[in-house]
Structures are given as structure tokens and as C-alpha cells.
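Practice record 12: protein with flavin-adenine dinucleotide.
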Amino acid sequence: MNPTEEADVIVVGAGPAGSTTAFYLAQAGLDVLLLEKSAFPREKVCGDGLTPRAVKSLVAMGVDVSEEAGWLRNKGLRVIGGGMRLELDWPELGSWPGYGLVRTRASLDEQLARRAQAAGAKLLEGTTVTGPVLNEAKLGILSAVIISTGLTWVVFHGLEKLSPRTRLRALLGTSMSVTDLAVPVDPERDHIRGPKKDALVTLVEYGDFECPYCGQAEPAVRGLIREFGELRFVFRHLPLTEVHPHAQLAAEASEAADVQDAFWEMHDMLMDHQGALTTRDVVGYAASIGLDTDKFSADLRKHVGAYRVAEDVDSADLATVSGTPTFFINGIRYYGAFDLAALKEAVHTAKARAVIGAR
Ligand SMILES: Cc1cc2nc3c(=O)[nH]c(=O)nc-3n(C[C@H](O)[C@H](O)[C@H](O)COP(=O)(O)OP(=O)(O)OC[C@H]3O[C@@H](n4cnc5c(N)ncnc54)[C@H](O)[C@@H]3O)c2cc1C
């Protein structure tokens, strides 16, 4: 593939979802590139039995679903298991066909990919995407990174000819990358450890005090803060209330402590005692860090921190964060492991990017 190939949209993977997406985008007039690592026809681990709902989607895409075109029709589902046998006819609904379909698994995906092509999408088979080129994405151009011996040779031999600083910039990119954090850090509002402003690296955590993974990540976060004096660490709330019954109370307890300027002391207490987060427990922690417990309890009862917690949750939603802990390093979502070594490496890279970007 030409590494500077341009498109309005690049769809990765020509499975049923990718091809259908490419089909509709191309039909809407967009310039679409559909990249598929394998080649058609290909064998796939799938039965390709299709329900009436799926049949309707095929028909909408202009696929010929006649028996002459190789499709087998069926009238319903037969489920056999656990000593039971169930037979269910497909429902008779005006909006859906009254039949399902079956065809060999080697051909369904190819048919859909060909429909995408017919609608105008450009399909490149045998093209494995290894990641987005973020700097170029910022300029509105996305190019798929293809691993090929030739390209690797050109890249490495080209890099040798660059000056050390330019080579570093080429390898790391600049600090101006696509930003994932939807609501930027606000030094006047956010809970911050480390320098409030002018930090080269800002690490944002969306966390839940009752989440065991946040607890496991906490020593790594503390290690980072110890090692990188200039790191700015921001904690935002994302209590996963459906699975953690005490998470909301704990989040509000940290905010009630914040009223007495002790957010971080309470944060650490809660992270260190994830298994004991009842009202009684958190009031005990308030006492042990020297807070006015009457005021703390009253603030807790009045839910003084609830609004702020909700604001953090909204900001997580905007960034499509739904699990904890989720980290952002200099605004970019971090997908690596939560151990100190992995986080350190990511922070080092972000710092190097920031340094060369600042020059
Ligand atoms: C055993 C089994 C039986 C099934 N039977 C049925 C059935 O009878 N009926 C039914 O409706 N569903 C069935 N399914 C489910 C069905 O297979 C999936 O729902 C469907 O394939 C999902 O489509 P998709 O496009 O989201 O993903 P996929 O079909 O997985 O497509 C993803 C595509 O992306 C490509 N790709 C991945 N990474 C890259 C990359 N880095 N660069 C480029 N390309 C990439 C892959 O090669 C693949 O073509 C079955 C699944 C299994 C496992």
C-alpha cells in the first residue's frame, strides 16, 4: 500500500461490521478505504446462519439472497441442549422477512466486502493495520502503517541520515498529538498532586475507591509521583456504582474531606482501605487524619461533593471512559499495563515528546 494513501474514513477490518460500515459511508459520498489483513475468499470460524433481522440488512445492502444465488432459507430455530429441544418459528412481522438464511462461511464476508466496493469503497486486502499515525491524523490525513520489509528498510536507513534531534522527533512525534481527554485539566478545579501548572507530564486517573484494580495501580502511581518530581497527577471520580456499592459514598467522602483541604489524605486512606468503606469507616478515617468529624459527617449527609463527582463522571463519559482505572498521559489515553515499569516508560516517552515539542 502506498503509505500516503488518503481517505475521508479508514475502516479497519472487512468483517461484516467493517464492510457494512464502509458500504454505508461510501454510499453517503465519503471517500472510504477498507483495510483487511486477510484475503478473500477465506475460511472463517463462523456458521453464517442468519436471522431475519440479518436478512433484512443484507437485502438493504443490495445482496441477492435468492436460492439461485446459493442461499439456503430456513423457517426458524431449533435449539437442542441439556436434554431439551426447542423449536421456534421466525415471527411473522411485516417489517422483516419471514425466513432466515444459511450459506457457506467462506463467502458471506466476501459478499459484503464486494458490496462495499460496489458502493465506491476502496478495499485493500492483505493489509494489516498496526496503529494510527497520530501526527498526520491531526492534519486530517490518516495513513495505515503497513509492516513490510521494504518500508522498514527505507525507514531505518532514512533515520540514520537524520540529525539526532530530528531523529528523536521522527521516532517520538511531537507533543502535539491527538488528544483523547475530553475535559482538559483545570488547575482551579481538579484535584492535583505535584505542580499545579507548567508540568511537562500530566497523568490523569479516572478512579473508583472501591475498585480493586485502582487499588493495585495505586502503588505504581505513588512510585511515579516519587520518581518524577515534576509529574502532575490528577484524580477524577468514576464510581462504578453498579458493581461497587460503597464507591459513591467513598467519592463523596473524599470531597467532604476536600472541604477541609484534606482531599489527598482521604484519597490515600480510602485507597489503602478499599474493603472498609461504610459511613462509619470513612468517619473514622476523617478522625484519624485530624478532620472536624462533625462537619465532615454533616457534609457527607448533605452530599456536598455529589455534584462534583457527577461532573467528573460526565467528563469520563465524554471521553468514552467506562472502566477504572483509566489513565491519560498528557491528554492521550494510556492502554498499557498498570505496573510501575510500564507507566514509567509511558511517562518517560511523554516527557521526551514534551521536551522536544517545547524547543
Ligand atoms: C464459532 C463461531 C460461530 C459463529 N456463528 C455465527 C452464525 O452462525 N451466525 C452469525 O450471525 N454469527 C455467528 N458468529 C458470530 C460472527 O462471526 C461475528 O458476530 C461476526 O463475525 C462479527 O463481525 P465483525 O465484523 O464485528 O468482526 P470479524 O468478523 O471478526 O471481522 C474483523 C475483521 O478485521 C480483520 N482485522 C483484524 N485486525 C486487523 C488489522 N489489524 N488490520 C486489518 N484487518 C484486521 C479480520 O481479519 C476480520 O476480517 C459465530 C462466531 C463464532 C466464533
